[in-house]
Amino acid sequence: MKRAKAQSHLERLDKLASMLKSEDFLTSKDLSDALNVSTRTLFRDLNILKARGMPIDTDKGRGGGVRLHRQWGLGKINLTTSETIDLLISIAICEKMNSPLFMKSLHSIRYKLLALLSPDQKANIKALRNRVLIGSSASPQVHASYEQSQFPECHALSAAFLYQQPINISYIDEKKTVTERLIEPHYLYFNYPVWYVFAWDHLRQDYRTFRIDRIQDSNVIEETFVLRPFTEFSHLIATDSPILL
Asked: Which residues are CB-neighbours of 47 under 8 A, at least 6 positions away?
């Protein structure tokens, strides 16, 4: 009986916390009615949540206002590995573009994200910024075809790029021909608004450029490749637009 009562209390505390997070302002009557408890019990529960670290502001006067402190939301968040990868690549892109806006905290955010990864993962991220290339705007023809593209999930490509792993892809070219490729994604190239990957193509045994929005199904191979120097790929951006397949 005591265990069931304790479980019911925990569930009530969770519900109370959720209500406070979802609303800007609630009265003590709103909360006590929703939880089916007395005002005295409500404030006892609020004190428990405060002791757990929730910054709750309460007013026992007229109206009995209850709300979270405005700074709530700056607490801990749990990220998956794929979310961490996406954030790190996004930060590298922002740093490479050298934007004057929104840059102040990126370095500290990157260090905090790196703290979530293993030593081996960190080693692959160290030179990430140098593998992101920024070009000029794409041609009107490329703009038009890009706007008509269907965008698949890119988590596999992001992981393969970040951890230097080969990846099998289905690629559809501008003639709508689909080929199966095994590629090594060495560098990312941004020719606004289109992203490309500069890769070593095992099928052609040569350097190739792939438009990321034209990559269909993909799966990562559980091995690693040695990063090739960019000089081996530089001919792919000898003109305003990369070579297209």
From this structure: none
Question: pLDDT value at position 147?
Answer: 63
Tokens (6 digits) for 39: 């005002």
Contacts (Cβ under 8 Å, ≥6 apart) of 139 = 240, 241
Q: Which of 8-17, 63-72, 89-98, 129-138 has the lowest mean pLDDT?
A: 63-72
CA-to-CA separations, 235 to 198, 230, 232, 240, 242, in angstroms, rounded: 11, 10, 7, 11, 9
The whole-angstrom separation of Cα 244 and Cα 196 is: 9
pTM above 0.85, yes or no: no
Supply φ then ψ for residue 216, to 5 degrees.
-95, -120
In whole angstroms, what is the distance from residue 243 CA to residue 29 CA?
67
